[in-house]
Amino acid sequence: MDGKRSCSLCGGAMMIMMMMMMISHMTSALEVPLDSKVLEGLPQPPTITNQSPKDYIIDPRENINIFCEAKGKPHPSFSWTRNGTHFDVEKDPKVVMMPGTGNLVIDISGEKAEVYEGVYQCIARNEHGSAVSNNIVIRQSRSPLWSKEKNEPITVQRGTSLILQCRPPAGLPPPIIFWMDNNFQRLPQNSRVSQALNGDLYFSNVIMEDTRNDYICYARFPHTQTIQQKQPITVKVLDIEAMNDTVLAAFLNGSDFWGDSPSGERVPSFLHPPGMESTTMVLKGDTLELECIADGLPTPNISWTKVNGELPSGRFSFYSFQKTLKIKEVTEADGGDYRCIAKNRMGSSQHTITVVVRAAPFWISAPQNLILAPKETGNLTCDVDGNPKPTITWSVNGNPIESSHNDPSRKVSDGVITLSDVQTGSSAVYQCNASNDYGYLLANAFVSVLAEPPRVLTSLNHEYSVISNSRALLDCASFGSPLPKITWFKDSQSILNSDLYHIHKNGTLEINVAQPQNSGKYTCIASNNLGNKENHVHLQVKEPTRIIRQPEYKEVQRNSIAVFECKVKHDPTLIPSMIWLKDNGELPDDPRFEVGSDSLTIHDVTEDDEGTYTCIRNTTLDQDSASATLTVVEQPDPPTDLELTDQRERSVRLTWTPGDEHNSPIKLFLIQYEDSLHEPGVWLNMTEVSGTSTTAQLELSPYVYYSFRVLALNGVGLSESSDPSRQYRTNPAKPDVNPSDVEVSGTSPDTMTISWRELSGLESNGPGLQYKVSWRMKDAEQWTTVTLANVSQHVVTGTPTFTLYEVTVQAVNDYGEGPRPEVVLGYSGENSPTVAPENVKVSVQSGTEAEVHWEAVPLSSVRGRLKGYKVTYQKMRSLHKQDYDRENPQVLIFSGEETVGRLPDLHPYSHYRLNIRAFNGHGDGPSSTDQQFQTPEGVPGPPTNVNIRNLNLDSLLVEWTPPLEDNGHLTGYLLKYQPINTTEEAGLLKEVLLPANETSYTLDKLTHSTHYKFFLNAMTETGSGPAVTKEAFTEVDEAMTNRQAEIATQGWFIGLMCAIALLILVLLIVCFIKRNKGGKYPVKEKEDAHQDPEIQPMKEDDGTFGEYSDTEDHKPLKGSRTPSNGTVKKDDSDDSLVDYGEGGDGQFNEDGSFIGQYSGKKEKDTAEGNESSEAPSPVNAMNSFV
């Protein structure tokens, strides 16, 4: 709420407030609002709203503008004093006061600005009082020239300290000092050379490079934007120890020699401030600057501490290479002792600075404008503090209160003025002045005596909207004198202070935690003894905006796509906007960044896209945000700086420097090698080490020319390979290993082949690599040996068939033999078996399966490793067809030493033969004697070429051919058929048995226009074979269909149907009329004649009830239910509106109910049936139109 429109409200009940208004009482300050409608006709003493600063430094090249603006009713007039006396503006043509304000414009062209220097004060007055401004001190800015001086060259011994003084001219405000050379380049500063706060240049110790002739001090005056230059200073640094007297005298001629200071290494001492202790004063709220500059060699380092305390956290900083300590916004707690310590390797020194904190006057509570009703009492309070304690003086309308007229209602007590039982017309402006040695404060506060009824300043029916669970503030800004009391209501219920509600002194209603049920209309009433005023405001509590699908951390590869989601749930009446930030700044202006309705998509991601992305979804009332980080990953850069160390005969250490891992940690390093002696240009994997390693101990082989390279692997992939290392050669040696994969095999009955895997060049260990091959029969004593080179096998001839041998293969080179080889066992070549299996028997299991048995052959006849038996069987002919078209033989292999086998997939009713032979690795042995067997009959295959044709409207012809596979003697065919409707519901299934010689069958007396389904099976003695399914339709009777269509389109038929419909409508209307007139239908008359429907005569032929019984067969309607015995109960067949869902209990009286003309139900009471029913019915409704 605007502070200029706020007011304080008195508490208490209305009755208490009115009673206190009748007597003198205390009241709070009230400021007159700036609302123009409120100000109309409302008096107000002057109030200063704008004024120039107390210390006003002017530029002599520009006009002087002194500001003084004020408000009041009526609008105030303005006057000025200068140096304590009246300043007659109208008499000075150079001075103009701006209309409507007290602002002065002083034209100083052609005049000296010094003429208008002085202390100015503005007075704003109207008929209700006078307000005064601060004392405004006008001073002209000055930038005087440097006094002329001649700077003698300074000669100084190397290692001593030096101070170059600047001593700039005094300016207003003080100038800014800096040191430069002749080329206008700032002189370099460091911990050894630095500029002090007073502008002097300090050298803790000088070096030979400090010799130069252009040390120039500059002073910049900010108001006039001018720079003044001191004459250059020349510094010569001498190394006296290296000079003789003649040379030294020449250097010292005409120079100031700084030779008193020590030049060698020494303990630090302080150049500024001197000594061990000093004191400084600072004002509260200002910035404290403490400085320590030390002499010493080596250059000392400066550190700071506070004695008996800590440096103020967050408010201190160091400058000028730790030589200056700055503390901003000084408080009383910053007073005390500060210690600076200068230290080098020779020792340390310290200096203690005592800081004294003083304070110019500052407000604790400035006096506030006071509006009182007549007879009220109020206080003006001027509460200030400072160090030393400020002196408070009061003035009224700009005059000391002591010299003003005596007012018995006013009492002054130091910083408080009490006004009692004020009267209309006693308005005035009071000034409080608080001052001490370091400044002053001046405040105006008016007292206005008014009698005003309440006014509510908050706009009528203002709409407030807040988010659920947040604080709601409903304004009721008011004005009145006496102060109005504010009362709040919601839905006519009074609101009092509670855990939920709090009414502030300014009338604002606070709802601590607003909920949807707090929405609605609120009324505030402002009242005092002069009246009351009410206002209505409305509150809407809305759902909060929440991001329900937040962006998530993304780790993507360069040139890929990154998508951040940001889906929000919000109040339907609030439309959220979406803002994306990157690292708390705007997104790059790049078309690769695509902002969707609920997402951010970054195309072709680059390394520059890394960062934190924040989604902000905000409405006019609230916002929610969520952030996620994008990390761009790539393959690592290749390692660099490969180096070989710790070189030995069989090992070397390889070290490298990892490349950039590109945000994906390196998992491992792959080390590869090239053998330029044996396989130049071929790089092979050697070993892997963890991604945290940068070195590896490599095991080497003799007689290899190694080069190494390293690749890095991270989550993205392998890096490029590093540059190769320098070549490292190992010396030759005898082989370390023998050939592997030694095998013995027989390729023919009298040979044996010995094979092995040759050694690689890396395994050869030296030149002249050969293989020493040895063999002998198992358990024999003598070895046969040959030595071979560049081969991987050797064939031994003249070996006996399938004999066990021992074999060894050893590597040798020019430097010796390899290790002792292992003995490998193997057999010489095999030959075919010599004996056939005997006692072969066949056991037929079914028409398609048989089992065969045999005896195993003797192992001595195998002449090798027995691999198994081959069973060869062949269908010779079919027993039914008596044909001799033989099928190709089939072979089944049974491994190992099995002597039983199953023959699957045989043809039923067929003749077979079979034989068996053993086999080994060389080939097959002789076959056994052929065995004959037959399979029994089986079920036949399906009939073929099944076809169905229409013969006429009610006949179908089914045709087929016999099965391709009879599998026995056919005994006939089974034909089954049934009708099916459009919903695939099947009718009664009928069967027909047909003889084996039939290949067609005609079905008569079928229903025309009907869909039928057929099933046809062939049969043998064993059973039925698989069925063939077909579907067909009988023909449609088009003549009947056409006749029906023709009748339906004839004009006479259409006219007849219309006449029948009209006649039915007339009959219904007549029935309605007679029912409402109490008449009876013919049916009713018959009911009267036969009071008991149970004894009415039944027709003899069909058993129906007289003339109004149904003449149709007793068939249930679709959806009706009948008893299980097929009879229909009389009650269940009654035609009643209840049966069709039109009635409640199904009973109408007999004098007019619809049911009465059809029903055969027995009435409960005859007399009851003679009464007319007046219950609402469709008939009654119809009668209203007759």
From TrEMBL:
<feature type="domain" description="Fibronectin type-III">
    <location>
        <begin position="942"/>
        <end position="1039"/>
    </location>
</feature>
<keyword id="KW-0221">Differentiation</keyword>
<dbReference type="InterPro" id="IPR003598">
    <property type="entry name" value="Ig_sub2"/>
</dbReference>
<feature type="domain" description="Ig-like">
    <location>
        <begin position="454"/>
        <end position="540"/>
    </location>
</feature>
<keyword id="KW-0393">Immunoglobulin domain</keyword>
<dbReference type="InterPro" id="IPR036116">
    <property type="entry name" value="FN3_sf"/>
</dbReference>
<keyword id="KW-0732">Signal</keyword>
<feature type="signal peptide">
    <location>
        <begin position="1"/>
        <end position="29"/>
    </location>
</feature>
<dbReference type="GO" id="GO:0061564">
    <property type="term" value="P:axon development"/>
</dbReference>
<feature type="region of interest" description="Disordered">
    <location>
        <begin position="1082"/>
        <end position="1186"/>
    </location>
</feature>
<feature type="domain" description="Ig-like">
    <location>
        <begin position="361"/>
        <end position="448"/>
    </location>
</feature>
<keyword id="KW-0472">Membrane</keyword>
<dbReference type="GO" id="GO:0030426">
    <property type="term" value="C:growth cone"/>
</dbReference>
<dbReference type="GO" id="GO:0009986">
    <property type="term" value="C:cell surface"/>
</dbReference>
<protein>
    <recommendedName>
        <fullName>Neural cell adhesion molecule L1</fullName>
    </recommendedName>
</protein>
<keyword id="KW-0217">Developmental protein</keyword>
<feature type="transmembrane region" description="Helical">
    <location>
        <begin position="1052"/>
        <end position="1073"/>
    </location>
</feature>
<dbReference type="InterPro" id="IPR013783">
    <property type="entry name" value="Ig-like_fold"/>
</dbReference>
<feature type="domain" description="Fibronectin type-III">
    <location>
        <begin position="638"/>
        <end position="733"/>
    </location>
</feature>
<feature type="region of interest" description="Disordered">
    <location>
        <begin position="719"/>
        <end position="749"/>
    </location>
</feature>
<dbReference type="Pfam" id="PF07679">
    <property type="entry name" value="I-set"/>
</dbReference>
<dbReference type="InterPro" id="IPR003961">
    <property type="entry name" value="FN3_dom"/>
</dbReference>
<feature type="compositionally biased region" description="Basic and acidic residues">
    <location>
        <begin position="1082"/>
        <end position="1102"/>
    </location>
</feature>
<keyword id="KW-0966">Cell projection</keyword>
<dbReference type="Pfam" id="PF13927">
    <property type="entry name" value="Ig_3"/>
</dbReference>
<keyword id="KW-1133">Transmembrane helix</keyword>
<feature type="compositionally biased region" description="Polar residues">
    <location>
        <begin position="719"/>
        <end position="730"/>
    </location>
</feature>
<dbReference type="InterPro" id="IPR026966">
    <property type="entry name" value="Neurofascin/L1/NrCAM_C"/>
</dbReference>
<keyword id="KW-0677">Repeat</keyword>
<keyword id="KW-0812">Transmembrane</keyword>
<keyword id="KW-1015">Disulfide bond</keyword>
<keyword id="KW-0130">Cell adhesion</keyword>
<dbReference type="InterPro" id="IPR003599">
    <property type="entry name" value="Ig_sub"/>
</dbReference>
<feature type="compositionally biased region" description="Polar residues">
    <location>
        <begin position="926"/>
        <end position="935"/>
    </location>
</feature>
<feature type="domain" description="Ig-like">
    <location>
        <begin position="46"/>
        <end position="133"/>
    </location>
</feature>
<comment type="subunit">
    <text>Interacts with SHTN1; the interaction occurs in axonal growth cones. Interacts with isoform 2 of BSG.</text>
</comment>
<dbReference type="Pfam" id="PF13882">
    <property type="entry name" value="Bravo_FIGEY"/>
</dbReference>
<feature type="compositionally biased region" description="Polar residues">
    <location>
        <begin position="1169"/>
        <end position="1186"/>
    </location>
</feature>
<comment type="function">
    <text>Neural cell adhesion molecule involved in the dynamics of cell adhesion and in the generation of transmembrane signals at tyrosine kinase receptors. During brain development, critical in multiple processes, including neuronal migration, axonal growth and fasciculation, and synaptogenesis. In the mature brain, plays a role in the dynamics of neuronal structure and function, including synaptic plasticity.</text>
</comment>
<dbReference type="InterPro" id="IPR007110">
    <property type="entry name" value="Ig-like_dom"/>
</dbReference>
<feature type="region of interest" description="Disordered">
    <location>
        <begin position="920"/>
        <end position="943"/>
    </location>
</feature>
<feature type="domain" description="Ig-like">
    <location>
        <begin position="268"/>
        <end position="354"/>
    </location>
</feature>
